[in-house]
Amino acid sequence: MDSLSQIVLGGAVAAAIAPPGHRRAALLAGAALGTLPDLDTFVLMALTDDPVARMTEHRSWSHSLFTLPLAGTLIWWLYKRLGHGRVAQAPLRWWWAIVLALVTHPMLDAFTVYGTQVWWPLSVPPSVWGGVFIIDPLYTVPLLIACAWAWWARQRPVAQRALLAGLALSSTYLGWSLLAKYRVEQQARTDLVALGAAPHRLMAAAQPFNTLLWRVIAVGEGGYWVGERSLVADQGPMQFVFHLSDDAALAANAALPAVQRLAWFNGGFMRARVEGERLVLSDLRMGMDPDYTFNFAVARQADGQWQAIQTEQLRPDYARAERRAEAGARLAAMWCRIWHPAVAQ
């Protein structure tokens, strides 16, 4: 999730656990701890220039349910020994406040489609629950209000009630998102079977800033189907558009480490396309045609043979005004799509 969501989640969790007299300190400490795991981005930038490694190692060791409790315990011990006495006054409550402010970070990240390696260093695929977009005001605002209220109320009981209410509302929203995702995926499977399609894998992803409009990606032989479902406006079967993917080029390069790593990370939700002489792989979970967020050139064809190249990340070209206008128009169309049914194609 975005940094603001992680800050207010960490602050709310820590402040709800710490003693009332330490509430403002807990809000600040929890906010800092809530954003700490994402600092792995800077570590990876310093350690490697491989874009595939930077993408697939993000949210790994820094988001692990094995490493974060250890890191939290170390931070707790340092606070207890070197701090201003608050942790020493209530050591158990502060241990829980610090550890949970850290651990809730990857748990929230797992609700997005990016992929969070909560079981690192075990070689299991990343957790992708896909219930919410990376920015969702309906999740963040209740926690933001709760933290502001608790900062103002300080030790008064109303502060604790505000924090618990904010955490309850935001958690309920996450639960709703999983229920909505399940409903959309069940509908999509039924409708694809009716169309005679046989996808290998299928997922629904919440669209930007809401959980009312969902995008469905279903990967099959030779390509993938894309459909949308508005929980407000749509009735009846979903409509799908089939897009081609170069399975032959992907299979010819399947042994390349970059290809294997990306396939493991994205669970096979990947488009392969030959652009010029290069094989470009796009992560279908983030973005939409034609502008996917993560695209990597991994191989080059010369004299009919594929050869590995230094991996290059290809970013959507938003430098031009017309491309930015197109992106803005797609967002506006998405908002309208929430309230209006799909047009028959």
Strands of the largest sheet, in order across it?
1-2-3-4
User: What is the total tally of β strands?
Assistant: 10
Question: SSE string, helix = H, strand = E?
Answer: HHHHHHHHHEEEEHHEEEEEEH
Could you give the distance between the termini? Answer: 34 Å
The largest sheet is: 4 strands, antiparallel
Q: Which class best fits the helix and strand makeup?
A: alpha+beta
**Total separate domains:** 2
Alpha carbon gyration radius: 22 Å
What global shape is seen? Answer: globular
Q: What is the mean pLDDT? A: 94
Share of helix among residues?
40-55%
Q: How large is the count of helical segments?
A: 12
Strand content: 15-25%
Low-confidence stretches: none
Structural topology:
Elements: H1 3-17, H2 23-35, H3 40-47, H4 51-57, H5 67-82, H6 86-89, H7 91-109, H8 137-153, H9 157-194, E1 201-206, E2 213-220, E3 223-230, E4 240-244, H10 247-252, H11 257-266, E5 270-275, E6 278-283, E7 287-288, E8 291-292, E9 295-302, E10 305-313, H12 321-339
Antiparallel strand pairs: 1-2, 2-3, 3-4, 5-6, 6-9, 7-8, 9-10
Helix pairs in contact: 1-2, 1-7, 1-8, 1-9, 2-7, 5-7, 8-9
